[in-house]
Design brief:
Four copies of one chain form a homotetramer. Chain A is α/β, with parallel strands linked by helices. Chain A is built from eleven helices and 15 strands. In chain A, helix 4 crosses helix 5.
């Protein structure tokens, strides 16, 4: 095992990277040669120690690569199959359960900052046809979170209005899935330049929340006072108050965000008066990842990759993520 | 009242047309100057006596026009508002009920083959911005049926596969709504020329069911054996058997169709074995019509109008419908 | 108009009571002789000025009585029909909308502290067969809130676990509906004596939250660590933190409560990690009130009436409510 | 392997029974000492050759027993755990899929007419606390079918009306679950004596369909013309026509039945006009079996066992089933 040493005040901790060459698949397992990963806030929280993990835990929940060996009894995969990981490897289908949420790679077990990994055959799905490994590696955490928020929880329909926040991975995927499903999108960002890029991806309305801190009311006005059907909230306490202004009566706010923390006060009385659903969520099931792959193939939509780093540049990659300057996903390629 | 006399063996009956000029709105009512209507199989069944109605019943369930007067207590509408009718005027929202399904215009009460009608203020919705009356008049029966089948009952999502049958009004709208929602569409027709037109509207796969009578299996193969998520069935007994072949395990068949009748045998055991949902349905609620209008505005999609007739050419219009040569909707303009 | 007597520091304000004898029904309206009402926190907030209303607003959202006259065009009701009011008179069915939530009696228009009222025919439902008016008057606000929380939003099933808080109207109805639906109930209260009464109504598990302030953990243990399926939260900030401990992964917390206010901090990160749904809600639709009446008739369950006051004792009734000593509903009888 | 040889023209075929004493659990497997099974129509169809299976296939989809050994990697079970089988061992949760429906024991792989079986650890659930093995063995096929029909598909609520047909296993469980969920039940049977027994189990209304062949209309009248919310149909073509008369607008008919076959004509036009949902279904998922166990424990309800046979009396057991005289479940005890 190699350790990518990283440090300085406020900087990144030690990151364990697995470079052993020859895991053997047990019965029911598959060995995958990892070819790409991508960075999520969850990975950042792990390597920074915000989420406690055992010493030497190999990080990164996302991985994409090719099958190199299959164990006894595995019928779903063959060598050379192009596969990607699951954030919740034990969640097959249906709603969330304690059993299904356990076993997150890169946190509760070793993750994909490794050249070769052995995983359970049911902990993989195929990647979209024609996609690169880096593209596929953007999907398991960020894209599936946005997919579940909009298509499973909010069940958006054509003509619905969706509000997204900023330009992180989840938010950009939320914009893309919302457009794919025929919704109108109100995109918010602190940068006019980024808003232009969101418009190019299909955003129908743009709000610079730096210039318009009362963006909840602005969004309400963009819907002629009716309100937004679904908000993919990534800001927590920092954004929920405005979101409760923006959301329509009976609408949904998907609470994903931890970027803004959860420590302040929130005007929850509005949620009661407006009959709003606040839906906490962490990613989704294998069944939903498969449905998302089908949707991506049918649509031709591709992920927005901000930048690519080599595996041994992982510390620099996290530094870039920390700077909050990215637009879309930061990838690792092996 | 004027009566458009029509007859010949197998031909159309007498059609009552209302041309009185001055209904007054009672409290809660609105008088609408009807500017357009459109033909549905339901209207044909009424004028042909397949659905019994009282003598002198004014036909046509669909109407679009402008408000000319409002009764006491009406706040929702003002003169000059552009409005369209509801197939189920008493169904506000939620699921179907006996109370909500009653009062279908053109059957259980007088319809829109009339220059001026007085209707309850809640029996109207606005029409999509920028649409002509003829375009709007295509929506209340056929489009709302397709909308409900796909977005309320099947709850299709991006990447789902939808199968449509032929080129009637419901089927063409189903194709358009399916594409709007990010689905893949398998379109079937007996004519290669019509299939080309369906492809131009976005159909992803085409099956000529005359050349491929075993089209259920063909559709199954187009989905790599997985099956179709939702079928908008308009053929009844004539198509349900093939549909049960085509549909995926756990999929949905919306049973709208009366074109093929319901008198033959159907292999329902397949519905049990495949855990299929057969959903009978007749149009939808006002709430859904409003949602459909929002979706149409957001998408820019316009209805496919096959042909336009003047109100006093109504018999010729039904004759054209009877010939089964149309593609999309046949409209009446006043 | 008579004004009921009013009051001391911290006490109740002026309460308008309507005693005019002869409203006439307009077209579509019904005149009801009100025979009973009941007190809700909403009424208390109105009469105390916490919810601002115009001067002279007649309070009380709940009313039950008999029809004495019907206006033109009313077919649903006849004189002597036994009816009750709707909290949301314009919400027929389906999900909540701005239009549907408007027009709450006793706040946005005059309420039922009156001997005779004229209301829209669609703003009433029948009362359960064999019930007194006082019993029926307990239903429109408190019972329908509990009914919607459990059967519409949480969609509880036999074997689910429901947690209720205290002994107010909503909570006691929640206990009764949960048992009716085959659920297990964990009831919480600050009084052992009240807990005994909750046990007599069917509560399976009892927690005295005064002795067990960490009642969230206690509830979790009662479910062997799995957590509670649905919580009917009436305490807001004061209880939501413990509720998030108690609720299962993927469970639901119905946010009704305003008793504890909404001003403090809430550990919402738990909602995200546990994939919890926080559902704000205010009462329900006419369709649901009708379903609830059918359920009450089928079950034989009767409401728990804490005490009865005459209409001109209304100030004393609110004083009793303010003391928080009640168990179930406080009624007014005329 | 022992073969229970059976029988005469129109009678039962050869039934393979497994009596080998020592299967070893592979990794991920569990060996169960089977202590009881129960008979379903599906088992009858297998042993009679109506469902083709390979020679020597060991029948019986239902099994209950105790764990005697666990393979590598199994953490869910330990020796002496009391467990029962799953009809769809590969269906973990969520909706039905091709993958999930495959692998039915006693048909697509060997079943539970065996003293010891080795099965995948995920193909078992615990049995209700305090139940005998024979009682538990009644659940995996018949009870879970009824549970899914009513609580997953129909989502019945208190006050709903459920109609059941006859006194077979599915129908008696449907009655029990419907009562558990607060529904009213209309029970139908051809025997007054059996109707009395159904009343004793909680049926609210009784129809002898021999004396009242137009039982659909009779059920409609029992609901004051509104119709039945959900029908658990076990008769197929023989009962669906009457069911379509009985069901309410927007109601559901669960199509389970194969007893009456599917070969006749069915007035499906009624399904369209009444907006009825016909839901085909075969049993359910592990997640639902676990929920059903919790519901049974909470309710105290026990299965109705018609009769018990020893394993080597299996032919007599099937003969009894064929006679259609049973009420509830026929069990095998080992």
């Amino acid at each position: 095992m190699k350790v990518a040493a990283v440090k300085a005040p406020g900087g990144l901790g030690r990151i364990a990277i697995e470079t052993r060459a020859d895991p053997q698949p047990a019965a029911g397992e598959v060995v995958v040669r990892v070819r790409a990963s991508s960075l999520n806030y969850h990975d950042y929280a792990v390597v920074m120690g915000k989420i406690p993990t055992p010493d030497g835990r190999i990080p990164m929940s996302d991985g994409a690569g090719e099958v190199v060996a299959v164990g006894d009894g595995v019928t779903a995969w063959r060598p050379d199959d192009r596969v990607m990981s699951l954030f919740h490897p034990r969640w097959a289908a249906g709603g969330p359960t304690a059993e299904g949420l356990a076993g997150v790679p890169g946190e509760q077990c070793d993750g994909f900052a490794a050249e070769l990994v052995a995983v359970c055959a049911s902990a993989l799905t195929r990647i979209p046809a024609g996609w690169s490994f880096a593209e596929a590696a953007t999907l398991p955490c960020a894209a599936l979170t946005a997919w579940r928020a909009l298509t499973v929880e909010a069940r958006i329909r054509p003509g619905d209005v969706v509000l997204t926040q900023g330009t992180g991975g989840v938010s950009v995927f939320a914009l893309q899935f919302a457009k794919m499903a025929g919704a109108r999108v109100i995109a918010t960002s602190s940068s006019d330049e980024k808003l232009e890029r969101l418009a190019a991806l299909g955003a129908d309305h743009l709000i610079n929340y730096r210039r318009t801190p009362d963006w909840g009311r602005a969004a309400l006005e963009l819907t002629d006072g009716r309100g937004v059907d679904a908000i993919v909230d990534v800001g927590g306490t920092g954004t929920l108050g405005q979101g409760l202004q923006a959301v329509r009566i009976g609408g949904l706010i998907a609470m994903i965000g931890v970027l803004g923390g959860w420590s302040g006060e929130i005007p929850l009385v509005l949620a009661t008066l407006k009959n709003v659903r606040l839906q906490g969520l962490t990613v989704g099931s294998r069944h939903e990842q498969e449905a998302m792959v089908a949707a991506l193939e049918a649509s031709g939509v591709r992920p927005v990759i901000d930048s690519r780093f080599a595996l041994d540049e992982i510390a620099a990659a996290f530094g870039h993520q920390e700077s909050q300057k990215h637009f879309g996903k930061i990838c690792l390629e092996f």
